[in-house]
Amino acid sequence: MRFELLQALNAERSRRQACAVVTDLESGEQRLVREADVAADPLQEPLARAFRSGRSGAGEDGRIFVNVHLPPPRIVMIGAVHISQALAPMAALAGFDLEIVDPRTAFASADRFPGVALQSDWPEVVLAKHPLDAYTALVAVTHDPKIDDHPIMEALRVGCFYVGALGSRKTHARRVERLLAAGIAQHRIDRIEAPIGVDIGAATPGEIAVAILASVISAFRKRKMHAERRGEMKRA
Length: 236
Hints:
Blueprint: H1 3-14, E1 19-24, E2 30-34, H2 44-53, E3 57-58, E4 64-69, E5 74-78, H3 82-93, E6 97-101, E7 117-119, H4 123-129, E8 136-140, H5 145-158, E9 162-165, H6 169-181, H7 186-189, H8 205-221, H9 226-235
Parallel strand pairs: 5-6, 5-8, 6-7, 8-9
Antiparallel strand pairs: 1-2, 1-4, 3-4
């Protein structure tokens, strides 16, 4: 691989941007393709398949090889609650990095979350240092608008592949009113999964965690590509 190509690849990966190295197996020529540019690429179909599946491989005609690089998918949980305690080990088993954010130090303690990336600060502060992106799922479970609302709005703004919020339909209706008052468009608000998680009749924290993880996995595997998300955001 050419040095300048390696530099460009590493730059994209450090920014958590999906990209692929396309190699012509006959000539040995290589080029970098960013996910945002797939729609205009002559190899649109094989590239789109690679980005959706996350799997590298040769094209159908055997003439090219697509080596795809996706950012590690992650879950940012707003709220260090019992559901978070149950979800943390399951998320790791499913291959998701997980970070928990909660300014309430009585909840966000290492004793309650051993080995988990834990931020005991306000979401506004944490997300300014560690921004959300399209390969992040935002899960808000505090029931406190002062803690949940900002990260939800930020997740909708940047196009997180999943946005879910704990609460009853009545609670969510009030949340929708606040988001509309803050200037968030209705079609963006409609992306929020609330009540949160797949409808399996979950009742306990562990069951709710299973339902949430199922929704996150489904959203990640069925996610739209960056170019499609960017088009929707421009139409907003």
